[in-house]
Design a protein that fits this description.
By secondary structure, this protein is mostly helical. It has 2 domains: 70 residues, Orthogonal Bundle (434 Repressor (Amino-terminal Domain)), CATH 1.10.260; 69 residues, Arc Repressor Mutant, subunit A (Orthogonal Bundle). Strands 1-2 form a two-stranded antiparallel ribbon. Helix 1 packs across helix 3 and helix 8 crosses helix 9. The chain is globular, with a radius of gyration of 16 Å. The protein starts with a helix and ends with a strand.
Length: 146
């Protein structure tokens, strides 16, 4: 079982022990239903989602994590917060591809050098679901903007 699946299972168990249904968690944690399901199943890619959800259900990831990399990277880098930082300035005034966002985050040392464009794309998709960013899907190419 992968680390994410272990963490997701622990978080789900904690949620159930607290008496919350899936639909109850969404507004309380502030992430989408698909993100909640992704965390609980261990398929969500964004580390910040696990951290936010775990914090709400008072579940320490330090205690349940088998791989130190997950913790090290999530504490050193907050990728979703890093993208939100870019949203505050003029970076997204002109639509950007995920690789452009990744390159900018790397140049500012806001994400790990091993982070892929797909990883950044997942973060951008999560932010879109939360209404924080827009996506131009014309010509089957995604460009992200404010």
């Amino acid at each position: 079982m992968t680390t994410r699946k272990i963490i997701g299972a622990k978080i789900k168990t904690r949620r159930e022990a607290m008496g919350y249904l899936l639909k109850d968690i969404v507004p309380l944690v502030g992430i989408s239903l698909s993100s909640v399901k992704g965390v609980e199943s261990g398929t969500a890619k964004d580390i910040d989602l696990y951290l936010k959800y775990a914090e709400f259900v008072k579940c320490s990831i330090d205690l349940i994590c088998e791989k130190n990399d997950f913790i090290k990277n999530s504490k050193t880098y907050k990728p979703t917060d890093a993208v939100r930082t870019l949203l505050k300035d003029s970076f997204f005034d002109i639509p950007k591809f995920a690789f452009e966002v990744r390159d900018k985050l790397l140049s500012l040392d806001l994400i790990d050098e091993n982070a892929s464009s797909s990883y950044v794309s997942n973060i951008l998709t999560n932010l879109e679901e939360q209404g924080e960013i827009n996506v131009d899907r014309s010509n089957k190419i995604h460009k992200y903007y404010k």
